[in-house]
Design goal:
Elements: H1 3-15, H2 18-25, H3 29-43, E1 48-51, E2 54-57, H4 59-82, E3 90-96, H5 100-113, E4 118-124, H6 127-135, E5 141-146, H7 151-160, E6 163-171, E7 174-178, E8 188-189, H8 191-194, E9 199-202, E10 225-228, H9 231-240, E11 245-247, H10 253-256, E12 260-265, E13 271-278, H11 285-298
Parallel strand pairs: 3-4, 3-5, 8-12, 9-10
Antiparallel strand pairs: 1-2, 5-13, 6-13, 7-11, 7-12
């Protein structure tokens, strides 16, 4: 096994295509294919499944990829420290439901890194995609919530993907509304108070099951539904249409602006918000620092 072979595996996984990976690596496609097959033979595993539709990582390939990335990261650090060789871009990726504290922690991590060259990804995305990103190592860490309604399904999905859920904090349900909404005059809100107003939620794509909804109480009937893809659109509609969305209540005025406020919702429910990481791979130092920042922001 060589470092070059490990780099080949990582590049093929990132590109999802042998031809594209060979082009990026500036080698012939047959040479790349041969090198990976030699590595598979040496390790006694199958890293990639090959078909007419292309290639994808096997379950053991996903685990191997995690270790390969760690070895390459450590090699860069050694070369930078002892050989004076400039390292490549610092890379990190988070997949999360739409939480301002996750973005705030991401910004703080980037500031602390002090890196001159970096490629950081902050993916506010659909719940199933968060799980899929972490399971396939596209993201180092994912952030989502559990409650008494979705916990059984989400935990089973995590177990099937060899992922661990670690709680950060438990939040009481709140409602985000515009500061000038008619509901803003109330100290607390009930489901009955919300009935006349549009309910906003995030699109969950082909996995649009109630169990994967980003908002709790998604099964409660509502006559006026608005479904959006991004935070900015949701906030604009909260303000412009006197809409609401049910959430954790954790808000950052610097990131979200002064026109969105949170009101406690009087229901018997909760949101256990936490992070997910691969169960069999040691988290990177950036992942651990990001988690530490998350904990400090949500303590």
């Amino acid at each position: 096994m060589t470092l070059k072979q490990l780099q080949y595996v990582v590049t093929v996984a990132e590109e999802g295509n042998i031809t594209a990976a060979a082009k990026k690596l500036f080698i012939a496609q047959p040479s790349l294919t041969s090198a990976i097959r030699e590595l598979e033979s040496e390790m006694g595993i199958v890293i990639f499944m090959r078909s007419n539709k292309g290639i994808k990582l096997t379950s053991e390939g996903e685990e191997f990829l995690g270790y390969a990335r760690q070895v390459l990261d450590q090699t860069e650090l050694i070369e930078e420290r002892y050989a004076g060789k400039q390292s490549g871009k610092l890379k990190f990726c988070v997949s999360s439901q739409h939480y301002s504290f996750a973005v705030e922690a991401f910004v703080e991590l980037l500031k602390r890194s002090g890196a001159d060259r970096y490629e950081f990804h902050m993916r506010e995305t659909q719940t199933f995609n968060i799980i899929d990103d972490v399971a396939h190592l596209r993201s180092e860490v994912g952030i989502l919530y559990l409650n008494k309604f979705n916990e059984e399904v989400i935990r089973k999905t995590l177990k099937d993907n060899n992922l661990s859920f670690v709680p950060l904090f438990r939040a009481e349900p709140h409602v985000f509304i515009g500061k000038d909404s008619p509901l803003a005059r109330k100290k607390t809100l009930t489901l009955e108070d919300l009935k006349p107003y549009p309910r906003l939620s995030y699109e969950q794509g082909s996995h649009n099951s109630f169990y994967f909804s980003e908002e709790i109480l998604s099964t409660v009937d509502c006559d006026r539904e608005l479904v959006v893809l991004d935070r900015a659109t949701l906030f604009n509609m909260l303000i412009g249409l006197n809409g609401y969305t049910i959430c954790s209540g954790v808000i950052n005025e610097e990131l979200n602006g002064p026109n969105i406020i949170a009101k406690k919702l009087k229901v018997d429910d909760y949101m256990e918000i936490g992070y997910i990481i691969p169960g069999s791979i040691r988290p990177s130092h950036l992942t651990m620092e990001y988690i530490d920042i998350l904990r400090s922001l949500t303590a």
